[in-house]
Design brief:
The protein is mostly beta strands and 285 residues long. The chain is built from four helices and 18 strands. A hairpin with an 8-residue loop joins strand 6 (123-128) and strand 7. The radius of gyration is 19 Å and the shape is globular. It starts with a strand and ends in a 5-residue tail after the last strand.
Length: 285
């Protein structure tokens, strides 16, 4: 997906933007409430100091990020698909006396060799074991004028990658310009035989709504040449907040949709994976 090119309050991202404009593959990226940047040896103690002051700190090694200086660990307190959500969190931090904090956009590093294997289309990629055997493949969602595709790249012992499968993906008129993106992999069931779900999430802002779309691609066959099933879960930040949260449980993958801001209170629906589809968690087995 095309990334919204912006940088606020933090390390300069000039090298990131230069690399994207140069035509290399682009990974997903999100907005963060940025706390600090420290050396790896200082990261654990620095995170503990933030925690002792009531601010939870997540550590992001710089080698996981695209276009930033290597050899550091970034400390962040919030990750969001939306700039406004990260900004609101930072505003609260600053009002509480944490003046050195700010909003920062980080893009995930592209897996080595993915750009060469996929070409120059934007790529929404994640490592995932989708054929039941190590090492994990790279599963990528690419978008171009020729169509949207799910591609599976196989890793080889010599470090090279090859394209193992390419499947057409129907993206429900998903806009090309996103505000934030995330790619994650989850086990579908309690055992590896159940398969893997690759979840692509994206946030969009327009004059009417800040929407959050989740696309779930389920790989339940061992053969990556078998096209995954696709499930679409709508969400939103405004005008009516609809939050979608994914979680792995002993029974398998599930997600919860919470509609907030209603007069009768929040409405919650939980879905779980059963056999070959997501069903209401309260439905009889």
């Amino acid at each position: 997906m095309r990334l919204r090119r912006a940088a606020l309050c933090g390390a300069c991202l000039a090298s990131l933007w230069a690399s994207l404009w140069a035509g290399t593959a682009a990974a997903s990226g999100r907005w963060y409430a940025w706390l600090d940047r420290v050396s790896p040896g200082q990261a654990e103690a620095a995170a503990a100091r933030w925690g002792a002051r009531g601010v939870p700190a997540t550590r992001l090694p710089s080698d996981r990020l695209l276009g930033v200086e290597t050899g550091f660990v970034y400390l962040v307190a919030l990750e969001s698909l939306f700039q406004a959500e990260a900004q609101a969190y930072v505003d609260r931090l600053q009002q509480g006396g944490f003046k050195g904090t700010g909003v920062q956009y980080f893009s995930d590093a592209v897996p080595a060799g993915a750009a060469e294997a996929l070409g120059t289309e934007p790529v929404f990629a994640v490592d995932a074991e989708v054929d039941g055997a190590a090492p994990a493949e790279i599963v990528a969602l690419t978008r171009s004028d020729d169509g949207d595709l799910i591609r599976v790249l196989k890793r080889h012992a010599d470090g090279t990658l090859s394209l193992e499968a390419s499947h057409a993906a129907r993206l429900f008129d998903l806009p090309r310009v996103t505000e934030g993106e995330r790619a994650r992999a989850f086990p579908l069931g309690p055992s590896p035989e159940a398969g893997t779900a690759v979840v692509f999430e994206a946030g969009f802002n327009d004059a009417r709504q800040a929407s959050h779309w989740s696309l779930i691609f389920t790989f339940s066959a061992k053969d990556v040449r078998v096209a995954p099933k696709v499930f679409f879960v709508p969400g939103a930040r405004s005008p009516v907040p609809v939050r979608v949260a994914f979680e792995s449980t002993p029974a398998g993958l599930g997600y919860t949709v919470t509609v907030e801001g209603l007069k009768r209170g929040p409405q919650v629906r939980r879905m779980v994976w059963r056999e070959d589809r997501f069903v209401d968690a309260g439905a009889p087995k």
